[in-house]
Amino acid sequence: QTESPFIVPKNHVQIESGFNFEKVNKNENNYLYPTILWKYGVNEKFEIRVVSELTSNKNSGKNLTGINPIKLGFKTKLIEENGLIPKTSFIGHLSIPYLSTSNLRTQYFAPSFRFTMQHTLTDQISLGYNLGAEWDGESSETEFIYTITSGISLTERMGAYLEFYGFAPQKNITDHRFDGGITYFLKPNIMFDISGGFGLTENAPKYYTSLGFSIRIPN
Predict the structure, then answer these.
(1) What is the separation, in whole angstroms, between the first and last Cα of the chain?
(2) Mean pLDDT, all residues of the chain
(3) pLDDT higher than threshold 90 for residue 30
């Protein structure tokens, strides 16, 4: 859930894909197969981003499958790390209602944003966190977002992390969650990851599992 403040190198395309299963409750499951984040490095301080999601919701025997509204966005570098000041970037997206299947089309364009921050604690350990907000395209209610994660390099190719995150709707109770995962670099520009987590509050999903694949391609 925690986005990195680092920018994709100039003239590189980075593709981050994930397959996700989420157990909401005893009657409802969510699937993403896959979600894909496309990134392109414009220069040292700016990247453009496209998010596409093929999703399926199964609830009490009913199945709703389709493509969520595609998100167009960017990330820009704001501050380099300096002592107690974290490395900081800003991410903004806009969800486009008409770039979706009709059964998942929203009424309105929906913005989202977050500030992404990271501290280097040692050569092997980092601390990252995000703060932001998003809208669902159906109402004017704001949902605030927080994440905090600690990452550690286990070997030159393998890393691991633990993470707390949550969603705080303007008019409802905050949904808190916990997860963890392992990353593995098959090659310098090819990475696999596996993760899993569970809800910490009654209104959160029971648990989720995910597999991911990422590749960076020079242009």
Answers:
(1) 27
(2) 96
(3) yes
Q: Is the pTM of this model over 0.85?
A: yes
Give residue-wise pLDDT tens across range 119-136. 999 999 999 999 999 999
Residue 145 has a CB neighbour count (10 Å cut-off) of 17
Kindly report the length of the chain.
219
Give residue-wise pLDDT tens across range 58-105.
998 899 999 999 999 999 999 999 999 999 999 999 999 999 999 999
